[in-house]
Design brief:
The chain has ten helices and no strands. By secondary structure, the chain is mainly α. The relative contact order is 0.16.
Length: 208
């Protein structure tokens, strides 16, 4: 007999707007490992600080246009004139501190690669935990973790800003470093990196 389709169970925030629902069903928790992708998510999580995620999501394409596709090498050369231009850009969140932090974070990510041979993506992913949470309800989803505290500390040491442990944990959830989908959610395990019970999934054997 054919299996019945799995019930669509989502986090409560994902049902507050169709854009959030689409984001939850197609993107949130899926692995992002490229440098521009990780830098974009880190930047957007910083802009979200003190605001709602839907506010950022609605402005996402404008952010991408304003920040040169979040390519760190392109953003790193922004000068004061670019900052002033961005402060006049009605499509984004016009916060001087957050704009300047994004530019400086791009420069810091370049320095990181020059100094260590590895970029922001490698650093962030190196803090992947051995186990992921197994939340039954929204109230069970943590807002930080030991790894997010450690990563936030290291990012700050390297010179990044707007990278507190809560912001960093939101990033880790968004790009699949942890899986905080509810145990009953149809998206649990969607990244392919985690088993539903929170243990790491063994990689598929490749060709010999």
């Amino acid at each position: 007999m054919p299996q019945e389709p799995r019930q669509m169970v989502r986090a409560s925030w994902a049902g507050q707007d169709p854009l959030l629902t689409h984001y939850y069903d197609t993107e949130w928790g899926m692995p992002v490992t490229d440098e521009a992708g990780v830098f974009e998510r880190l930047s957007l999580e910083g802009f979200q600080s003190g605001l709602s995620w839907i506010t950022v999501l609605r402005k996402r394409e404008a952010f991408r246009e304003a920040f040169a596709g979040f390519e760190p090498r392109r953003v790193a050369v922004f000068d004061e004139g670019d900052v002033e231009r961005l402060l006049q850009h009605e499509g984004i969140i016009r916060n001087r501190r957050k704009i300047m932090a994004t530019v400086e974070n791009a420069r810091t990510s370049l320095r990181l690669r020059e100094e260590t041979g590895e970029g922001l993506s490698e650093l962030v992913w190196s803090y992947m935990p051995e186990r992921s949470p197994t939340p039954e309800t929204d109230a069970d989803v943590p807002s930080t973790s030991p790894e997010s505290h450690a990563l936030a500390k290291e990012l700050k040491r390297r010179g990044f800003s707007f990278v507190g442990p809560t912001t960093v944990y939101a990033l880790m959830c968004a790009i699949g470093i942890v899986d905080v989908h509810l145990m009953s959610s149809h998206r649990r395990g969607c990244s392919g990196l985690w088993n539903p019970d929170g243990t790491r999934r063994e990689p598929e054997p490749g060709p010999r």
